[in-house]
Specification:
Layout lengths: L4 E4 L6 E3 L4 H21 L6 H25 L5 H14 L11 H18 E3 L3 H9 L5 E6 L4 H10 L8 E4 H4 L6 H10 L9 E5 L2 H9 L3 E5 L17 E3 L11
Parallel strand pairs: 1-4, 1-6, 4-5, 6-7, 7-8
Antiparallel strand pairs: 2-3
Helix pairs in contact: 1-4, 2-3, 3-4, 4-6
The protein binds magnesium ion.
The site of magnesium ion has 7 residues, from loops.
Length: 257
C-alpha cells in the first residue's frame, strides 16, 4: 500500500549532535543549569551561594526521579514544570522568599537558558535537507516530526533555524503531548492530527532507536530504522526482526510505494 504519511524522529534521524559523547552531553546540561541559576541570580530570586547550590541539587533530584519514572510510565515531565516544582519546594522550605511571582514566563526563561546549547549543537545531517525537499514534492505524502524532548520550543526553533519547518504538516513533541515514545498514544494522536485515524498501516515511522521502532510497530505503523553509527551506553535492543533499515534519509524513497 502506498504510504500516506511519513513521521520522522528528530535526534539522530534528521539532526545529529556535534561530536557526540555522553560526557560532552552531560557537561552541556551541567552548564545549562548554571545558566538557569545565573538567570535567577540576576532576577534577585536566588541571592547567595548556598541557595544556588540548593536550587541545582533540588532540580537534579527531581529531573532524575522523573526520568526514572518516565522509563516505566512513558509520562513526560517538561523542563518548565521541573523548574516550577523546584522553586515551589524552595519556597516551602524557606530557602527563597515567598513573594516572588511564579509565572509561566519565568519557567520558560529558565528552560530557554537550560536548553540553549542545543540550538548550536544539533545540526541537520548532510542528506536531510535534500531528502526533505524531495519528500515534500511527493504528491499526497504528509510529513510530520515526532520527538521525545522535554521542551517543545527547542525542536520547533531548530527546524526554523534551518528553514525546515515549512515541510511538515505537524511538529509534535513529548513535552507538548505529555507522553513519550514508545507509548502508542502519542503515535495515534499524531495520526489523528494528520487525518489518518483508523489507518495506521498507511503511515511510516522512521527513527534511530527502540522508542521509534517498537512504538511505531505497536501503534500499527510501518517502522523503519535509520541506523545511527554512535551507540549510546545502556541502549535498549529492538525485539523485532522484520523492519527495514536504512543508513540515512536519502535511502527511504524505495520504501514509500
Ligand atoms: Mg532519535
Amino acid at each position: 500500500m502506498k504510504i500516506k504519511a511519513l513521521i520522522l524522529d528528530f535526534g539522530f534521524t534528521l539532526f545529529y549532535f556535534r561530536e557526540i559523547s555522553l560526557e560532552r552531553y552531560l557537561e552541556f546540561y551541567k552548564q545549562g543549569l548554571e545558566n538557569s541559576a545565573s538567570f535567577l541570580l540576576k532576577k534577585d530570586i536566588l541571592k547567595e551561594e548556598s541557595s544556588i547550590q540548593e536550587f541545582k541539587k533540588i532540580f537534579k533530584m527531581k529531573r532524575n526521579s522523573f526520568f526514572r519514572e518516565s522509563l516505566k510510565t512513558n509520562k513526560e515531565y517538561p523542563t518548565p514544570l521541573i523548574f516550577r516544582l523546584t522553586l515551589e519546594e524552595m519556597i516551602q522550605k524557606g530557602l527563597i522568599e515567598n513573594d516572588i511571582s511564579l509565572t509561566d514566563e519565568l519557567f520558560n526563561s529558565l528552560a530557554d537558558a537550560y536548553h540553549a546549547f542545543e540550538l548550536e549543537e544539533w545540526i541537520p545531517f548532510p542528506t536531510t535537507i535534500s531528502a526533505l525537499e524531495r519528500l515534500h514534492s511527493i504528491k499526497d505524502l504528509k510529513l510530520a516530526v515526532l520527538s521525545n524532548h522535554p521542551y517543545h520550543p527547542i525542536i520547533e526553533n531548530l527546524l526554523k533555524k534551518y528553514d525546515l519547518h515549512q515541510y511538515f504538516e505537524y511538529i509534535q513533541t513529548s513535552a507538548r503531548f505529555g507522553k513519550r515514545k514508545p507509548d502508542p498514544a502519542i503515535f495515534l494522536d499524531l495520526l489523528e492530527k494528520l487525518g489518518l485515524h483508523g489507518d495506521p498501516s498507511s503511515a511510516m515511522m522512521c527513527g534511530d532507536e527502540h522508542a521509534d521502532i517498537v512504538g511505531g510497530y505497536r501503534a500499527g505503523l510501518k517502522p523503519i530504522l535509520c541506523e545511527r553509527t554512535y551507540k549510546f551506553p545502556f541502549e535498549r535492543e529492538i525485539p523485532l526482526t522484520n523492519y527495514i533499515r536504512i543508513k540515512n534519509l536519502s535511502e527511504i524513497f524505495p520504501y514509500l510505494q
